[in-house]
Amino acid sequence: MFKSLANWRNWRLPVKLAAVLIVPVFIAVGAGVLQIQSDMDRAESYAALQRLVKVRSALIPVIEGVQAERRILAEGSGPQALQDQVRRTDDARTALRGQVAKTSLSGVVTARMDDVRSRIGGLPALREQTTDVPGAIREYTALTESMLDVDEVLASEFGDASLFRTAMGLHHVMHVQEQVLYQQAVVLSGLTRGQLVTAEVRSLVESNVKLSYIAGEFAALATPEQLTMWGTKFNSPDTEAHRKMLATALLYPTSDAPATGTGNTGTNAAKPKPLPIAASDWGRASGAVAKSLDVVVQGLQNDLRDAANRLRDETSDQAGTASAILFASLILAGTIGFVVGRYLLRSLNALRRSALEVAWHKLPEMVATGRGSTEIEPVPVDTTEEFGQVARAFDAVHQQAVRSVIEQAGMRANMRNIFVNLSRRSQSLVERQLKLMEELEKYEEDPDQLANLFKLDHLATRMRRNNENLMVLSGGDVARRFHRPIPLTDVLRAAAAEIEQYQRVMVHTAPNAEVVGYVASDLVRLLAELLDNATAFSPPHTQVSISASIEAGDIVQIDVVDHGIGIDPEALAVVNHRLEAAGEGADVQVFREMGLFVVGRLAERHQIVVRLDAQQGKGTRAIVLVPAELAPRREESWESFRGEAVEHQHQPARPMMSGPAMDPESASASWFESPAGTTPPPPAPARQTPESARGFLDAFQRGVQRGLPDRQESR
Question: What's CA 84's distance to the chain center, in Å?
């Protein structure tokens, strides 16, 4: 490979043009791909933040549900209100679990989630705890604090500065809201009892301090718009009323404080008065503050969601813009290369197209037809530089190739004519030989001599068929032609009589149809080739069957079935392709069976379909489909037709012998056109006595048995 790179002078012209642009293009592509990859990574990170926003959105309803249960338990609203709220809380928990399952969380978030899950597992028992309300409030508060810790960890996962500030601001507002709702629950619990205890007052003081601290943290992180929204919602008259009532609750004596009393003789303690706060006023004021904080939470949550969506869209747009710029750069580089190289490649492409047109179309057409003009069309390159010189050189090569093709076509035509003449001469001699042997077989009674005559008859029959095959391959027409319709059964029998191992062929009864005269002889020859192949490639002890049936559309289907070794699928596909290509002007190739090409030629001549079907190890089936117009149905019986034909010809009846001697001419002489100059058949012999007839048949049978071939001859 290094040698080919070093030898740059042999590079193709497009490669040389591409080498000029490849370095800047690679640099641009590399930089663009890195930028696109960076933008895609950022977009994916913002998509992950979007999923975290959805988790927080699913977590907030769970926190609100737990806070609502705490408030209901503190104010003693009754079991029905608690059950309704429990159902809403459980629905929010189900939505949270579904959202968490869709999101990939960090290890810290997962650990905090597990802690929350374990605490939530104790909710059913906590909801049943109605006697120790302060203890239940503490448990609910601890659960809420653990969920707020999860929210804080989720907020810390936002790596972008703008998103982090909004996420932490949202967490601080939720924490402030939790303090307000906690104060609401504690004071409501005290109002239910009448007074607060010292521990509750202390927790309210701590909650108030924590609220102020968290509010300061929010103010340090919030944007001016968020501070404006905070000031509008949190500094309302309800907030001021909430502060005053909370201060009153903190300064009022507790129920467990040391009692003071007056009296002459004892230490009678004065009972503390109930808190001077109406539960409805406190609930309304604290609830209004919590709802105003809900508006702030919702606004911050929307800001966080919109910011994450906006950042993801921006990074996606940046990646798309970088991709468009990179694509435009590549298009520009390709356009420059195309414009620069178009003029150089135009002449080369014209020369290439002309060469391929000559190689794939013009010369093959002349070879197939053997005709054409010696005048050629020059390559459309008119310049005088190097490409023009190459074009003129190709024109000279094309001119010489055309002359060679015409000369070769003339030589092939001469050879074909020679083959036709030789085949016809040999055919005439073989016909005379067969007639002579037929006469000798009629009067021969010696079994040994009769066996030898049968062997000669076998050889002569094959020689005649080979001559006819040569005639077909040469493009000529054979002399044997029927001039009347032939019964389909007789066509099958005549085909069986044409082959050497005729005794292995089982001819089944054919349907009542007849084959038109000009097709019958070719169909006999086609079936004989198939039968010869079937007997040659099947075991000697098996039979080959030939049958016919009429299918849909009055198409006659002829089946030739043997029980040989079969053909593997690949070879079967090749054979069927050759059968189809034989009639398309394909050149004769070297086949193992020359008869297959003859079958294809004969089938194409009359639009007959021939295909082979085989299973490995189960034999081969040859299917021949004859169109309805070539083999029409016949109403009357064949026997009456054959008798009328014989009577019309005024020929004396003679015994029909099965075997190779039973060819189409010996089976019924009236079916063929009588060639000119043929001698009339000899008169029939005188009637024999029964003893002489019996002896003749016995000798004929022994002769047939001895005349069977000792082995199958390969074709």
Answer: 55
